[in-house]
Amino acid sequence: MKKRFQFAARALVALISATAAHAEGVVITPADVAAMAEKVGAASSFVDTTWATIFVQAGHSYSAPRLVPFVHSVNTGCGVLPPDNAHYCGTDNAVYYDIEFFAKLSKYTGRELRTDGSYAPITVLWHEIGHGVAETLGINPAFSRNQENLADCLAGVVMGQAGVSGTDVEEGLFALKLGGDRPTTPLDSPRAHGSAEERQSMFNRGYHSGLQGCNESIASKLSAVGTTATSFHGH
Question: Domain residues for 106?
Answer without folding.
Answer: 14-64+99-221
